[in-house]
Design goal:
Radius of gyration: 17 Å
Number of domains: 1
Order of helices and strands: EEHHEEHEEEEHHHH
Mean pLDDT: 90
CATH superfamily: Transferase(Phosphotransferase) domain 1
CATH class: Mainly Alpha
CATH topology: Transferase(Phosphotransferase), domain 1
CATH architecture: Orthogonal Bundle
Largest sheet: 4 strands, antiparallel
Structural class: alpha+beta
Strand order of the largest sheet: 1-2-4-3
Helix content: 25-40%
Number of strands: 8
Shape: globular
Distance between the termini: 41 Å
Length: 210
C-alpha cells in the first residue's frame, strides 16, 4: 500500500523533496478507523497534507524541514531535503526531540523510527502527515509506544541495539516517568503484544524497574 510518493529533485542547485499525497485504499481506511480510539488518524490526502503543512510551518524551534511551496489542488508539497540516515539515530536524541514536540503541544500519531532522520548536527522529523496540536496524554502515550515498537523491529536481530535505544530514550524523554506509570494501565500497552519476543525483557525492565 502506497500512501505518499516521495521524490528527490534538484532545483536551483539544491536537493529538495517533492511529496505527492495519495488517497488511502480501502484496507488502510479500515485500519485507520480501527485505530481511531487510540489516535485520530486522518485518511484523506487533503487532511494529511493540511496536517503536515500545519506542523512544518508552525513557529517553533522544532527540527523539521522547511517548506518551499505547496499545491492543494495537486496534493503536493516541496520541502527541504535533510541529509542524514535513520540508523544514525539513537534513543537519546529522539527522546529529546519527542520531548520538545510534546512540550509544544503536538503529537505525531505516526511516530515510527522511519519518520526521523539524524546527522551529526541534530535529529529531525521528516514525516508529519498525522501530526496534530492536541494537549492529551493519551496521544503522547501512543507516540511513545509506537516509537518503541518500531525500534524493536528496526533492531529485530540486535538485542543490544534495542536495549541501548530504550535506555537512551528513557533517560532523555522528559515525560518518561508519567508514561511508565500509566502505559501498562491503559490500552497503549496493547501495541507491545506485537513486540518481537527477544526484546520483551528489555522493555519490561525499562517499564517496571524503579
Amino acid at each position: 500500500m502506497v500512501f505518499s510518493q516521495v521524490n528527490i529533485n534538484i532545483r536551483d542547485g539544491r536537493k529538495e523533496i517533492v511529496k505527492k499525497y495519495n488517497g488511502f485504499n480501502s484496507s488502510k481506511w479500515w485500519l485507520s478507523r480501527l485505530l481511531h480510539p487510540f489516535y485520530p488518524f486522518a485518511s484523506s490526502s487533503k487532511s494529511r497534507l493540511e496536517r503536515e503543512l500545519n506542523f512544518l510551518r508552525s513557529e517553533n524551534k522544532l527540527k523539521k524541514p522547511e517548506v518551499y511551496s505547496f499545491n492543494m489542488d495537486e496534493r503536493e508539497i516541496r520541502r527541504q531535503f535533510i541529509e542524514g540516515k535513520n540508523d544514525y539515530c539513537n534513543g537519546g536524541g529522539i527522546g529529546k526531540l519527542l520531548s520538545e514536540v510534546h512540550k509544544e503541544g503536538y503529537v505525531l500519531g505516526d511516530s515510527k523510527l522511519d519518520n526521523f532522520i539524524c546527522n551529526s548536527d541534530s535529529v529531525y522529523i521528516i514525516d508529519a502527515e498525522q501530526a496534530i496540536h492536541a494537549d492529551k496524554n493519551r496521544y503522547r502515550y501512543w507516540d511513545v509506544s509506537l516509537l518503541l515498537l518500531s525500534a524493536g523491529y528496526y533492531n529485530y536481530s540486535n538485542i543490544e541495539g534495542f536495549k541501548s535505544f530504550i535506555d537512551g530514550f528513557s533517560r532523555e524523554y522528559a515525560y518518561w516517568k508519567g508514561y511508565r506509570e500509566r502505559v501498562l494501565k491503559g490500552p497503549y500497552s496493547l501495541l507491545f503484544l506485537l513486540m518481537p519476543v527477544q526484546h520483551v525483557a528489555a522493555l519490561r525492565k525499562a517499564l517496571l524497574d524503579r
